[in-house]
Amino acid sequence: MTTAVLTRVRRLPRLRPGRLGATVAGTVLAVAVLACLLAPVLWPLDQSAIDLSQTRLAPSPAHPAGTDDLGRDVLLRSIYGLRVSLLVGVFAAVVAAVIGGAVGALAGTLGGWVDRILMRLVDTIAAMPHLLLGIFIVAMLRPSLGAVVLSVGLTHWLSTARIVRSELLSLRHRPFIDAAVSGGAGRMRVLTRHLLPHVLPRLALATTLMIPHAVWHETALSFLGLGLPPHLASLGNMINDGRGSLLAGAWWASLTPGLVLIVVTLALAALTAHWRDHLDPRVRAELQL
Question: What is the residue-wise DSSP string for 182-233?
Answer without folding.
Answer: HTT--HHHHIIIIIHHHHHHHHHHHHHHHHHHHHHHHHHHHHTT-SS-TTS-
